[in-house]
Amino acid sequence: MSENGNQVRHLAAADPFDVDLAAPGDPVAESERAVLGSVIQSSAAAHEAAAILGPHHFAKAAHQIVFEAALRLADAGQPVEPASVLSELAAAGTLTHAHDHNLGSGGVFLHSLMERAGSTGYHAPKVLAAWQQRNVKFTLKSCESIAEAADWDPDMHLDRIRKLIEDATAYTGSTALRPQSEIVLEALEAVEQGIDPGLSTGYPDLDDAIGGLRPGELIVVGARPGGGKSLLGLCIADHVSTRLGLPVLFSSLEMSQDELTHRRIASIARVPLVHLTRHQVTDADWELIRRAQDRLVNTQLRVDDGSGVSLAHIRGRLRGMARSGYAARLLVIDYLGLLAEPKTESRQQAVAALARGAKLLAREFAIPVLLAAQVNRSPESRSDKRPGLADLRESGEIEAAADIVLMLYREDLHEQETAKAGEVDVIISKNRQGPLCTVTMTFQGHYGRIVSLGTEPWSSSRFAE
């Protein structure tokens, strides 16, 4: 150690940068110095500290600079020792900032750190805890400023406050990226074990085509009014929340909770929807409902039917579910056109922002987001009335943000005499994980449901290209 210390002293130059960064005996500063004293002498210590800390966790700017230099050397596979750290600081042009008023500057500073080296496993958590305390104090001040906003908006500003507090109180360790060598092995193991990363939609043929509903994906379901987009969203939500028993948030901006509940009862019990909506339930209907009662009641579906709902409001609902111990595994938004708009210069920009925001929700909460959207009138004027990506209403950003786009087409809405009466084509117009094709299902509007035509495994011959 003395050899390294002499080498550092020899390499050091006078440092004019002289700022009192910490008073003697400051426990936080001493823990930071203990970590750095070990880190600058060993690659192993640098990696151990990096598993707990990032440079931003150090209170002193000089400590951040030294830690960054040691990590750069360790990540590059180079020896980490005082002389190499000093050279790295000089090469980065930050040597003049490696200074502590109480410990000296440059090489003298590094030598002083070496003398204060301590257990990384003991001191690194103390450094992290001190950073969290500072962060909480700063966050509370920020929340106070938000609460004093003249243009107070409960949805937007309360969501910002919740996020600030949750971020400040969450454990935040190293931001180091995981090596691909680890991720590849995990991916291959999942493939070998047959682990399906996606949730089932309840439609085997659709699952085979799109690979299920994957965390972080935005799935857009587009259709003309009456085309079945709300119904498909509800059927998928019911399957995940009831058959799979996983928490689902259904944000319904179009229908009330009572309307959705009537559709669930009709779909599950196979009771005519009109009997429920008109309160004309027969004895036979009641018997069917009795038989389906367990499935009707034992569900993890949460319906939010508030009006004027924004993405910030939905984010708050998702956080609330997570805090209650029932973190949502799927979010369904019905539908894009009724979401509260952010402040933008045009409707097109607002829709684009909403589409991007829905995708960010999927990434933030690591869940699939199914977003219903209306199709414009363009298909009505064409001989081929099947909708395409360009027909999504008001913004091309919807297509760009989506991982999967499902366009619904019911031929019997356009032609009274058709062999496809009672069918709905689910046109997979965009699919990052699979084929572009069409899956045909049965539309049973009188029961408030859409059901699959078949359950056999996917093959290209089963779908219309």
Describe it.
By secondary structure, this protein is of the alpha/beta class. It has 2 domains: 2-125, DNAb Helicase, Chain A (Orthogonal Bundle); 197-462, Rossmann fold (3-Layer(aba) Sandwich). Helix content is 46%, strand content 12%. It contains 18 helices and 11 strands. The strands form 2 sheets. A 9-stranded mixed beta sheet has the order 5-4-6-7-3-8-9-10-11, sandwiched between helices. α2 runs parallel beside α4 and α3 packs across α4. The longest helix has 28 residues, at 120-147. The radius of gyration is 30 Å and the shape is elongated. The N and C termini lie far apart (72 Å).
Named CATH topology of the largest domain: Rossmann fold
Q: What's the quaternary structure here?
A: single chain
Alpha carbon gyration radius = 30 Å
CA distance, first residue to last residue:
72 Å
Strand content: 5-15%
User: What is the number of beta strands?
Assistant: 11
Number of helices: 18
User: How much helicity do the residues have?
Assistant: 40-55%
The CATH architecture of the largest domain is 3-Layer(aba) Sandwich
Largest sheet: 9 strands, mixed
CATH hierarchy class name of the largest domain = Alpha Beta
What is the string of helix and strand elements?
HHHHHEEHHHHHEHEHHHHEHEHEHEEEE
- Overall form: elongated
- Name the CATH superfamily assignment of the largest domain: P-loop containing nucleotide triphosphate hydrolases
Mean pLDDT across all amino acids: 83
The total domain count is 2
Structural class computed from helices and strand pairing: alpha/beta
- Strand order, largest beta sheet: 5-4-6-7-3-8-9-10-11
Residue runs with pLDDT of under 50 for 5 or more positions? 1-23, 455-465
